[in-house]
Amino acid sequence: MASSTPAAHYARPSIALHWLMLVLLAAVYATIELRGMFPKGSAERDLMKDLHFMLGLSVFVLVWLRLILRLSRPTPPIVPKPPAWQTGLSHLVHLLLYLMMIGLPLAGWAILSAADKPIPFYGLDLPAITSPDPDLAKFIKGWHERIGSWGYWLIGLHAVAGLYHHYVLRDNTLQRMLPYK
Does the N-terminal peptide bond of residue 118 adopt cis geometry, omega within 30 degrees of 0? Predict the structure, then answer.
């Protein structure tokens, strides 16, 4: 017999994916920032770029699983219930994070495609999603970098909000996503 009481935590697969995605996103950002430590054309710089692409595409693959889990399972309620404006802002931030986790990897794939470069994915070369067009590659790259920079702020806002809820408001927002109970 199923309980009618809502769960106090997200399901374990959702929790595991959330924290795995955090590690992947940190690695995506780290690899692109660290590439600047190496001279252009060096093997190390190329490795950082390849890792950036592969990790970004890993985010793209896993975000779909996260969305399926999020839409197929109930969201544990926040106790005490936050004001409507906080809930609305939370939904907006989550929507923007999901759009970023889908849009930025697609943009990276399109950049490589338009630049007529291979698209590495753990030993595979993925097919191009657009025909070669250097102007298009440059245009998409500008937006990819801009939105990626905004991602620092968005991820930071998400983290600060979780900590604010935990330490200031003392509700269960963060506890719902922690891997331990």
Answer: no
Question: Residues with Cβ < 8 Å from 115, sequence gap 6 or more?
Answer: 132, 134, 137
155 Rama sector, left if φ>0, alpha if ψ -120 to 50, beta otherwise:
alpha
Longest alpha-carbon distance in the chain: 62
Instruction: Encode pLDDT of 150-181 as tens digits.
Output: 999 999 999 999 999 999 999 999 999 999 86
107-139 confidence digits (pLDDT tens): 999 999 999 999 999 999 999 999 999 999 999
Domain covering 12-76+83-174, topology: Fumarate Reductase Cytochrome B subunit (1.20.950)
Q: What is the mean pLDDT of the chain?
A: 95
DSSP 25-51: HHHHHHHHHHGGGS-TT-HHHHHHHHH
Give the residues across from 124 on adjacent strands. Answer: 121
Task: Please give the torsion angle defined by the CA atoms of residues 100, 105, 108 and 113, in that order, rounded to the nearest 10 degrees.
Answer: -140
Instruction: Provide the CB-side half-sphere exposure for 142 (13 A, CA).
Output: 5
Q: What is the residue whose two structure tokens read 């937006």?
A: 143
162 three-class SS: helix
